[in-house]
Structures are given as structure tokens and as C-alpha cells.
């Protein structure tokens, strides 16, 4: 390939917004020559590589905007430590069919069993599949909404929780809410109903949500919309954090 043609292709690729093609043109040409690729095969190679680069760039950008606390995956989760948890149920969720259906997923259980890990892992998988993600704790969402309401910007702030394909709401139940705060949560749940998915984690059973939201009627209204299309997974095993702490204590004891 002549230098003139190479320069022209690179210039055209840059104008078309294909920077990877411009940077890797010589490598593509070498691979095509080594593999004796025909014109269509060469074009298929270039387009496939460019699409993969764009998907990876979009994925990394999506993770950055998601506010996820970490990027752990299902492969990082130790299912053997939670024998009562059926891995098939989690893997069914990982197909993301519930997100495509604009349904919800709830992960319930005591602290330390990996609820947040699983919620984040599902969100990471959804992000890789092209869905937009936003992560928040319930307390932080309420605080942000209250601040926006006081400043007359509630409608605008609500959109930040309604816009993403998947809203991850972590730590539902750690702090009881006042009725006005619960009403803000109801607005988010109600407006997302059948329009976008929610993945939530909670250390409370649904029968305890009346205490969490400070009003049985309001809690029932929230649950009615949340659970209409929802996969619920209860994790009732031991704490990973306690397991790690006990292991550390044992190591310290052995050294002593």
C-alpha cells in the first residue's frame, strides 16, 4: 500500500470518526496480507475491530458515569460460601431479560452476604450490553432529592434517577425515612414503573418496609409497583466480611 493511499485512508478515517482505523491501518494491511484476505473479508475485519473498540470505549464511559462503587463481576462472587443461594437464579438475571422487559430485581438478606456485589455485577453486565446505569444508596438518593426540592429543582433532579435504563438502589432499610422522604422515593418508583428497571438491595423483608418508609399505605404503594414485575432473591447465609475477619484473626493467632 503506497504512502499516499495510506495517508488518504487515515485522513478519511479520522474525518469519519474512526481513530482506531487510522492508528491501526498498517496492522490491518499486514494481517490481510498474511491471511490472504479478499476485499470483503478485509472490510469485515476492519469493521469488526472498529466496532469492538467503540463498544469497549462506550462500556468504559458507561462505567465511569454509573457511579458504581466497584466493578466486580459474577465471576468474583463465591457462590460456594452461600450454599442456600441457587446460582442458577442469579445467572438467569444475568441474561438481562428482566432489563429488556423493564422489570426489577430485589436482592434481600442480612449485611455481608454479598447483596451489593451481586447488584453491581448485574449492573456491570448490563452496562457491557449497552444499557445505561446509575448507582445510588437509598439514603443518598433521598438526600439529593430533598436538597433539590428545597431549591425548587425537584423535577430536574428526578430526571437523573428516571433517565438510566437501570437504577441500582442500594441499602434500602438501613435508616427509617420520614413520610415526606418516603414520598420522594415513591415518586421515583412510580415514574420508573414499566419504563425502566430497578435493582435494589435491602436488609429488610418486604413485611418490614412499613417501618422503613414510616407509613404502611405508602410502603404498600411502593411495593405494589416495585414487585409487579420483579425477581426476588433472598440470601440468608453467613457474612463474607465476618469470614474474612475471622480468617485474619486466625492468621494473627497462628503467627503469635
Task: Summarize the helices and strands and which ones pair or pack.
Blueprint lengths: L2 H13 L3 H16 L4 H28 L20 H7 L3 H4 L3 E5 L6 H14 L4 E5 H13 L3 H9 L3 E7 L6 H14 L4 E6 L6 H4 L3 H12 L2 E5 L5 H16 L1
Parallel strand pairs: 1-4, 1-5, 2-3, 3-4
Quick summary of this structure?
By secondary structure, the chain is of the alpha/beta class. The protein is 59% helix and 11% strand.
Describe the structure.
With 256 residues, this protein is an alpha/beta fold. It has 12 helices and 5 strands. A 5-stranded parallel sheet has the order 2-3-4-1-5, sandwiched between helices. It is elongated. The N and C termini lie far apart (69 Å).
Key terms:
single chain, 256 residues, five-stranded parallel sheet, ATPase AAA, ATP-binding
The helix count comes to: 12
Query: What percent of the residues sit in helical stretches (DSSP H or I)?
Result: 55-70%
End-to-end distance, in Å?
Answer: 69 Å
The global form is elongated
Amino acid at each position: 500500500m503506497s504512502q499516499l493511499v495510506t495517508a488518504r485512508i487515515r485522513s478519511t478515517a479520522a474525518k469519519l470518526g474512526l481513530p482506531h482505523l487510522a492508528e491501526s491501518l498498517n496492522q490491518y494491511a499486514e494481517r490481510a496480507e498474511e491471511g490472504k484476505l479478499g476485499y470483503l473479508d478485509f472490510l469485515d475485519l476492519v469493521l469488526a475491530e472498529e466496532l469492538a473498540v467503540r463498544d469497549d470505549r462506550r462500556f468504559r464511559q458507561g462505567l465511569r458515569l454509573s457511579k458504581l462503587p466497584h466493578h466486580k463481576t459474577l465471576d468474583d462472587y463465591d457462590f460456594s460460601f452461600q450454599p442456600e443461594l441457587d446460582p442458577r437464579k442469579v445467572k438467569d438475571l444475568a441474561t438481562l431479560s428482566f432489563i429488556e422487559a423493564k422489570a426489577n430485581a430485589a436482592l434481600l438478606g442480612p449485611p455481608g452476604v454479598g447483596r451489593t456485589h451481586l447488584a453491581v455485577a448485574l449492573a456491570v453486565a448490563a452496562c457491557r450490553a449497552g444499557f445505561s446505569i446509575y448507582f445510588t444508596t437509598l439514603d443518598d438518593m433521598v438526600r439529593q432529592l430533598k436538597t433539590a426540592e428545597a431549591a425548587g429543582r425537584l423535577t430536574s433532579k428526578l430526571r437523573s434517577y428516571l433517565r438510566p435504563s437501570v437504577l441500582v438502589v442500594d441499602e434500602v432499610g438501613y435508616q427509617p425515612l420520614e413520610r415526606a422522604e418516603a414520598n420522594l422515593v415513591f415518586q421515583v418508583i412510580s415514574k420508573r414503573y414499566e419504563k425502566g428497571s430497578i435493582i435494589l438491595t435491602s436488609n429488610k423483608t418486604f413485611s418490614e418496609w412499613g417501618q422503613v418508609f414510616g407509613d404502611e399505605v405508602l410502603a404498600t404503594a411502593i411495593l405494589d409497583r416495585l414487585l409487579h414485575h420483579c425477581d426476588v432473591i433472598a440470601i440468608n447465609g453467613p457474612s463474607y466480611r465476618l469470614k474474612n475477619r475471622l480468617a485474619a484473626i486466625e492468621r494473627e493467632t497462628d503467627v503469635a
